[in-house]
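Entry 14. Structure prediction run on the chain below.
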Amino acid sequence: MCRYVATHLFAAIRAWVRARITGSGVHSDDIADAVQLRRRYRKSVSTLPDVQRTVFSLHRVDDLSIAEIAARLDLSTPEVEQHLAAALLAIATAVDAPR
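Output returned:
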């Protein structure tokens, strides 16, 4: 999961837990925003070209280095960097798009 999305999801979860512990209400808008953010993130990842999605997943989910991804996919390091940058830009653009 993209760190940006994860940060917002974890913030919403923390707010929900805090509200449950203190007995105060959770704003349904916060939960809806977190759900919508997660939906946009998943959709943006699923629409990436195969190579970009693979590079993104290997780097962000499997925590492989650029060099490890390059070796695994038989790509040059600059190619992996370009695919990763393109994937991150596409995801950030989709996640931050106006609703």
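The chain has one domain: 3-96.
Filed with the rest of this week's runs.
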